[in-house]
Structures are given as structure tokens and as C-alpha cells.
Write a structure and sequence with these properties.
With about 270 residues, the protein is an alpha+beta fold. It is built from 6 helices and 8 strands. Strands 1, 2, 3 and 4 form a 4-stranded antiparallel β-sheet that branches. Strands 5, 6, 7 and 8 form a 4-stranded antiparallel β-sheet that branches. The longest helix has about 50 residues. About 55% of the residues lie in helices and about 20% in strands.
Length: about 270
Amino acid sequence: MRKSHPVRRVVLATAATVSGVVLLLSLKPASDPAAASAAGAAPQQTAAGQEAPQGGAAQAGSGTVTGDAAQTQYGAVQVRLTVSGGKITKAEAVQAPKGGLSDQKTQLAVPKLNQEAVAAGSADIDAVSGATYTSEGYKKSLQSALDRMKTSAPPASGSSASGSSASGSSSSGSAQARTVTGKAVRTQYGPVQVRITVSGGKITKAEAVQAPKGGLSDQKTQLAVPKLNQEAVAAGSADIDAVSGATYTSTGYRQSLQSALDQAGG
């Protein structure tokens, strides 16, 4: 055998080393773009992840909305709405013309306008005959409240900081709110029956689903029932005063109200 020459071994070793370095240099640029693309993908995924929670946060408002006070020839009219799930569940006039003949017209017109507002769910309601100014003022304030209800969806009940807790409390509040109807109480002029809405252990609404009708009874009912409804909500009990001139209706109202309270556990 022939021995390999030492110089030849050195040349071969040098060539192997040079080829190895060349291979390493050729591989390094290929790996860098991959690392760069992997690093660049992370921020894009983060940005996409941030868009998802921002995308969907709409809440249906529930609460109380008060319209602007509409000035009429006989005084201001201002309407307050109770809204649940985007629908009107209650309408009431927190201001209405007072004094002299205005008292009678207000007592006759406002309950009808309240009922129509809830039934229609809009300001497209009929004027009450004999109370044109009050009716027009009511519709203007009602429309103002409806407009405010639409534009105040993000603030909901006025607490933006506690948006999630507000939605939770409104849903739990609506779950707790319930309507109870008392027994129909017979009076000398006809039955009286009261229905109340209770939320959080308090009366939030009271209404007479039955009341004396016909002849003079109609006038007495229209005069007495709105006052009795207001007193029931304010007092939170059946300990309310009788309306002068409508003693039988008042007595029947209180008895039916107490029956409803007993059913509600209050």
C-alpha cells in the first residue's frame, strides 16, 4: 500500500472545513426569514384577537326615561316611560296642567293617554276629546322620551362603568318583577279589582282592572282611580286615603289592593 502524503491530508481537511462553512452560511439566511415570519405572525394574531371582543357589545336597555317638558296653553306636560326589553311597559305624566277646570281634564285625559302610549309603543296616539292641549303636549313629551330611549342605549341606566353588572341586575330585576291581581271586590256600584306590579319588594305600578261604570260612576271612577293608583305606589301598602266623593270605589280599591299585596307576600 502507498502511504498518503501528509500534504495531501492537510489539503483534504482544509477543503472539508471550507465546504462546511459554506453550507452553514448558505443555511443561515433561509432560517432567518422563517423566524422573522413567525415573529411577525404573532402581532397579527393578537390584533385579530382584540377585534373579536370589541365587535359585539350591544345591550338592550331597560329602565326609566323622562321626556322633555312640553309647554301648553294651560301648563307643562312631561311624560316618563318605563322600558323593558326595548318596549314601553308603563307611561305616566309627571307633569300635567293643574288648577280649576284643568284638574278635571287632566284626570280624565292622562290615564287614557298613558294606556294608549303603552298599547301603541309610539307617540302615534289619539288626542282625548276635550283635552286637546294636554294631549298635544303629552305626545310631544312622549316623542321626546322615545327619542331619548333610542339614543341612550350605550349608557343604558346611566352607569357605563358597570355595564356588565347593570345588564345582570336588569335581567335579574326583570326576573324578580311580577304582576299580581287582587280579588274583585263588590261594591254598591260595581266590582273593583286592582292589579299591581311588584319589583324588589316594592309596588312599582298599580291599576284598576275593574271599576264601577255607567252614568255618574264613570266620572267618579275617572276622578278617583288615578289618585288611588298613585297613592298605592307611594304608600307601598293598602293604607291609603279614600277619595272624596268616591267612598265605595275607594273602599273596594283598598280591599282588592290588600288582597294583591297578600298574594305578593307583602
